[in-house]
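Example 218.
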Amino acid sequence: MRLIILGAPGSGKGTSATVLREKYDLAHISTGDIFRSNIKEQTPLGIEAKSYIDKGALVPDSLTVSMVEDRLSQSDCSKGYILDGFPRTIAQAEALDQMLAKKNEKIDAVLSIVVDDEVIKQRVSGRRVCEKCGASFNVTFKPTKVEGVCDLCGGNVVQRADDNEETVSARLKTYYENTKPLIDFYGSRDLIVEGDNGASAEDCIAQIEEGLMAKNII
Ligand code: AMP
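Predicted structure in complex with adenosine monophosphate:
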């Protein structure tokens, strides 16, 4: 099964993707995570990407597309995957179409995670992530047992550099301008499965699974 997960920053797409990855044994490809690990390692890609990420802007399509093409050629993707944070522009979606066509593959469904903007702003400013294992917490909604320490692996729990209020507004604007049009792009192919993540992550996953069942994908 090959899935895309779409949603505004802080909508909970990463969390939903993690649940689905475990449950259906999928490779989880988060372009945000790949950029962050390149930034940490100070690779040329990371150094270039950082200037865009810090502003809440998108990393140029040319860099992003070749990074994803490379990732999709790795062997774990043959079991199926969930693309989290890619595509984010129509040009990226068209590039993905071409990558898949070369391999005679297709996307089975596009999961659209829906959450109100005000809820997103609250969630993102309180979000904290583990530097070591990537687990996500929230100072209000899901605090760590010991401040600054990951409940799962004991790693350092920190705020992402781009999770401040100013950058979040820029990221939301970028989402509406560049990424939201993908809902119509994939909607016209009848690929959208919606999950409402306004209240509970469990309900959101249940809605997604119902949608996937209705399309005979699971
Ligand atoms: P995320 O972790 O998905 O919220 O991504 C964090 C940041 O990485 C975004 O705000 C963008 O600056 C950059 N990024 C992630 N995925 C993409 C993409 N597909 N295209 C361009 N930039 C991206």
